[in-house]
């Protein structure tokens, strides 16, 4: 066992994978990416000798990845298998559907929203799909509790967390309220990714959790109490309790990437209702004995939530079709080369 890596989140699965790697290679964890270069931690030490900087040529790496580096520190030679990864679609080009790994080898995903803003349930639902598909545990975090003057803003978001069975924490990065509970997610060298739009208080939250001014905090507009986005690149930073935090830049576009059962888990309430419909292929429109429509009529489910699920399902199906087109085009190019 590589005991010098345990504090970085190394485990038995990584140890087994490393047995197949050239013993001369250096093992470390990616802490930052900058235009074709990786900064890699080879120990949990904060000293400069605990970091190396290498090229990513030909390597698909993400912050949080465990990698094998050439002895001369020239390049990343191999990426160890991930146990989780937060992935979104990187391109909207119809023939170039590509994935972008935002963070890798994470145990939890903090989905951060400001309690002071009008609730954006549709974005939360999209973020939940990505988080569930990552293989990590989603956690809804509502920030700026110290500025909250309209509790109804958080009621709808708390309900979204409740129906899909995840924890919801209301916190303040300024006063520190609720942060002790968040810190527990990093215990035992666990890794947490933070996902959220610009201006929701992510940087203030990160600084408070880390205990230093790790991220610059943008100015706050008086009109809506929203800060300007300040995180420009994902970073793996240490928590005081031995855990690790991956702070991601505020992402405006959160396009889905096909993978697991994220939609089913993010909309667990609708899938549960659908099992009670009379027809197995019920479209939840005007079919008789539709349990989903009945729930909407009773006020237990909103039509907006049902429509949101429908849009996300359609987006995943469209992506699957694009990927099939890309495979066919690639196969045709291969056949032309053979001929």
Main traits of this protein?
alpha/beta; SH3 type barrels; Rossmann fold; Ribonucleotide Reductase Protein R1, domain 1; 3 domains; five-stranded antiparallel β-sheet; 30% helix
Describe this protein's structure.
With 339 residues, this protein is an alpha/beta fold. The chain has 3 domains: 3-79, SH3 type barrels (Roll); 85-247, Rossmann fold; 262-338, Ribonucleotide Reductase Protein R1, domain 1 (Orthogonal Bundle). 30% of the residues lie in helices and 21% in strands. It has 9 helices and 13 strands. The protein has helices spanning 12-18, 121-134, 152-163, 179-183, 202-210, 262-266, 268-274, 291-297, 303-338, and strands at 26-34, 37-41, 51-55, 66-69, 76-79, 85-89, 99-104, 108-114, 137-143, 167-170, 191-196, 235-238, 244-247. A 6-stranded mixed sheet has the order 10-9-8-11-13-12, sandwiched between helices. Strand 1 and strand 2 (37-41) form a beta hairpin. Helix 2 packs across helix 9.
List strands and helices in order, with pairings.
Elements: H1 12-18, E1 26-34, E2 37-41, E3 51-55, E4 66-69, E5 76-79, E6 85-89, E7 99-104, E8 108-114, H2 121-134, E9 137-143, H3 152-163, E10 167-170, H4 179-183, E11 191-196, H5 202-210, E12 235-238, E13 244-247, H6 262-266, H7 268-274, H8 291-297, H9 303-338
Helix pairs in contact: 2-9
Characterize this entry briefly:
By secondary structure, this protein is of the alpha/beta class.
